[in-house]
Amino acid sequence: MLTIASDGEMLARFGRALADPIRCRLLLALREAPAYPSDLADTLGVSRTRLSNHLACLRDCGLVVAVPVGRRVRYELADPRLAHALDDLRRAVVAVASDGTCPEAAEKGCC
């Protein structure tokens, strides 16, 4: 059974992964379909070196996995439930942003 502390640590790790816009875009791209790093770099408009660093972060967080395909490596979400979680989170964030419930927090720099 997980404890609240370990649940909190896992959520914080997920939050750190989402704290960077490139990693968010990477997760959303992989939500659509598995992809190769070169294709992801082109899609996101970032260098392959920069993309590699972000993929390593997401791997270390346990959010993506590298799947060998011949001499290449394809990336995909570590668990299909992550796609649903990303969809739910995106919808929730859009709903909160559109109803303006967080204006003072944005002024303080926390959102």
Mean pLDDT: 87
* Rg of Cα set: 16 Å
Please, how many helices? 6
What do we call the CATH topology of one domain?
A: Arc Repressor Mutant, subunit A
Describe the main β-sheet briefly.
2 strands, antiparallel
In the predicted model, the low-confidence regions spanning at least 5 consecutive residues are none
Question: What is the assigned CATH homologous superfamily of one domain?
Answer: Winged helix-like DNA-binding domain superfamily/Winged helix DNA-binding domain
Strand order of the largest sheet: 1-2
Beta content comes to: 5-15%
Content-based structural category: mainly alpha
Percent helix: 55-70%
How would you explain this protein's 3D organization?
The protein has 111 residues and is mainly alpha-helical. It has a domain at 4-78: Arc Repressor Mutant, subunit A, CATH 1.10.10. It is built from 6 helices and 2 strands. It has helices at residues 4-18, 21-32, 37-44, 48-60, 80-99, 103-108; strands spanning 64-69, 72-77. Strands 1-2 form a two-stranded antiparallel ribbon. Strand 1 (64-69) and strand 2 form a beta hairpin. It is globular.
Offer a concise description of the structure.
The protein has 111 residues and is mainly alpha-helical.
What are the key terms here?
6 helices; HTH_ArsR_DNA-bd_dom; mainly alpha; WH-like_DNA-bd_sf; two-stranded antiparallel ribbon; lead ion binding; 111 residues
